């Protein structure tokens, strides 16, 4: 998974802060312990002195004296450790044994930094979408009328196992149905789980995704970072397709995205309030034909849940 250098920098910074905080905690505890028991500082001074004489003996090659120093320093270290433990000074914690909190293992980014970076990516996504309220556990089947329950339960189970077994070879999904039937909720729930697994997920309402890509195309920087990410993300979720402002450019952009991801065999989830016929009319049969066979169609049924929830709240 390609983490952006920005998130990696942030993750490294956070790690540094955690280590610094722990160092500060240790220094403060140590100072307090020394204030109560000056012997701790004396031991440090004695240890330093032994270190200096040890250097001299090493140069002379005085093995007996070296051994003597070793014994003394061992005893002093033990005494210090006992005093510190009595004073309840916890040793400085090492948060990651693999990199010893440097963030790198043989010049490569340590897994501990990567996992923080992934968490940050989820958080950043969270800024633009209500991930907090989503989650399969918050999908309430009781809001659906009896005749819709079975079908919606099936869709829910399907989505759970889709997220569970997600891989870059997962199916493409097309969520259709009127608004307020939980399409966004289930899309976000999948996003949440798949992001947790460390996959790179791009989620956005069609309008904002297309606008971001369009801005790039018409800027002078030649930057295509956002469009690249949309094209290359492990999972792309386009929410609310059909609400975007339609231009010839958007139409061809949408075709490019769908087509390019199909060629790369990268999964895409699209949700829309439009019926299949309406999709065909809006995006040309050329695009609609890509959906047939290449996308697994999930039709949401029921009554607008947002309206039902509001009514319940007002009761
Ligand atoms: Zn590490």
Briefly characterize the structure.
With 315 residues, this protein is α/β, with parallel strands linked by helices. Helix content is 62%, strand content 10%. The chain has helices at residues 5-36, 39-60, 63-86, 111-128, 146-164, 183-196, 206-217, 225-232, 248-263, 276-294, 305-314, and strands at residues 104-105, 108-109, 172-176, 201-205, 235-241, 268-272, 295-299.
Keywords:
2 domains, 11 helices, binds zinc ion, 10% strand, 7 strands, Rossmann fold, alpha/beta, 62% helix, single chain, two-stranded antiparallel sheet, 5-stranded parallel beta sheet, 315 residues
Describe this entry's structure for a reader.
It is a single chain. The protein is an alpha/beta fold and 315 residues long. Helix 7 (206-217) packs across helix 8. The strands form two sheets. It has a five-stranded parallel sheet, sandwiched between helices. The protein has a two-stranded antiparallel ribbon with strand order 1-2. The mean pLDDT is 88. The relative contact order is 0.10. It has helices at residues 5-36, 39-60, 63-86, 111-128, 146-164, 183-196, 206-217, 225-232, 248-263, 276-294, 305-314, and strands at residues 104-105, 108-109, 172-176, 201-205, 235-241, 268-272, 295-299. It has two domains: 17-94; 129-314, P-loop containing nucleotide triphosphate hydrolases (Rossmann fold), CATH 3.40.50. It has eleven helices and seven strands. Zinc ion binds next to loops.
């Amino acid at each position: 998974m390609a983490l952006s250098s920005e998130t990696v920098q942030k993750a490294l910074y956070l790690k540094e802060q955690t280590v610094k905080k722990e160092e500060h905690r240790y220094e403060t505890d140590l100072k307090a312990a020394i204030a109560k028991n000056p012997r701790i500082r004396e031991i440090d001074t004695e240890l330093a002195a032994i270190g200096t004489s040890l250097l001299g003996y090493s140069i002379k090659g005085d093995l007996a004296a070296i051994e003597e120093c070793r014994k003394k320093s061992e005893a002093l270290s033990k005494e210090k450790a006992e005093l510190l433990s009595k004073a309840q000074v916890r040793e400085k914690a090492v948060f990651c044994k693999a990199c010893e909190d440097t963030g790198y293992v043989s010049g490569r980014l340590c897994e501990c930094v990567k996992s923080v970076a992934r968490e940050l990516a989820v958080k950043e996504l969270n800024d633009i979408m209500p991930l907090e309220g989503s989650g399969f556990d918050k999908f309430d089947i009781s809001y659906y009328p009896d005749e819709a329950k079975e079908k919606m339960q099936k869709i829910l189970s399907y989505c759970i196992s889709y997220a569970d077994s997600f891989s870059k070879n997962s199916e493409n999904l097309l969520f259709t149905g009127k608004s307020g039937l939980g399409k966004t909720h289930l899309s976000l729930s999948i996003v949440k789980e798949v992001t947790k697994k460390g996959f790179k997920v791009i989620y956005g309402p069609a309008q904002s995704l297309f606008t971001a890509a369009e801005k790039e195309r018409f800027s002078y920087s030649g930057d295509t970072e956002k469009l690249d990410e949309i094209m290359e993300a492990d999972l792309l979720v386009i929410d609310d397709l059909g609400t975007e402002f339609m231009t010839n450019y958007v139409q061809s952009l949408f075709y490019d995205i769908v087509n390019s991801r199909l060629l790369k065999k990268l999964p895409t989830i699209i949700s829309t309030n439009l019926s299949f016929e309406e999709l065909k009319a809006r995006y040309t049969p050329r695009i609609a034909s890509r959906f047939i066979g290449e996308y697994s169609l999930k039709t949401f049924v029921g009554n607008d849940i947002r309206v039902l929830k509001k009514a319940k709240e007002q009761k």
